[in-house]
Write a structure and sequence with these properties.
Blueprint lengths: L3 E12 L2 E7 L10 E2 L2 E3 L6 H13 L4 E15 L2 E12 L10 E7 L11 H8 L3 H10 L1
Parallel strand pairs: 1-6
Antiparallel strand pairs: 1-2, 1-4, 2-3, 2-7, 5-6
């Protein structure tokens, strides 16, 4: 069997002091009904920021947002022959208006303290627990 890998660009997208999470539908790729941050895979020849902007717009309808920095890089084996490498970008928007695609059934703007109320995808939850949230919120407030 052929080995393959993909690159994903995801956003921890803030509006004021809350960030956006979306709930996967049965039409999305991978584990269904978990909450995650928006974003997705690069298409061949696409730059990561281009993919991030395309995916955020496709999944949420949000077009106007700024990319502040790369927050986290990760790598996971999805199957023994499939690796997904990804970047999570810290982003900021001024609009709470979301128009979901069919890949997701719900969305929520939440604070870090509200995370336990949601069934967050396990590897995302693990990553988020290691982040310096004080620094993240400081960066959001400064931009």
């Amino acid at each position: 069997m052929k080995n393959e890998f993909f690159f994903a660009a995801k956003a921890l997208l803030f509006c004021k002091d809350k960030f956006l999470i979306v709930k996967r539908s049965e039409k999305s790729r991978g584990a269904h009904f978990y909450w995650e941050y928006p974003g997705g895979r690069l298409e061949f020849g696409e730059q990561p920021i281009e993919a991030l902007r395309r995916e955020i717009f496709e999944e949420t309808g949000i077009k106007d947002f700024s990319v502040l920095c790369i927050l986290n890089l990760w790598s996971r084996l999805k199957t023994p022959n499939t690796q997904i490498i990804g970047a999570i970008y810290l982003c900021k928007t001024s609009s709470y208006n979301v128009k979901l695609s069919e890949e997701h059934t719900e969305y929520a703007w939440i604070t870090k303290e509200e995370l336990p109320e949601y069934n967050i995808y396990p590897s995302i939850k693990d990553d988020m627990s290691s982040w310096n949230w004080e620094d993240i919120l400081k960066r959001i407030a400064e931009n």
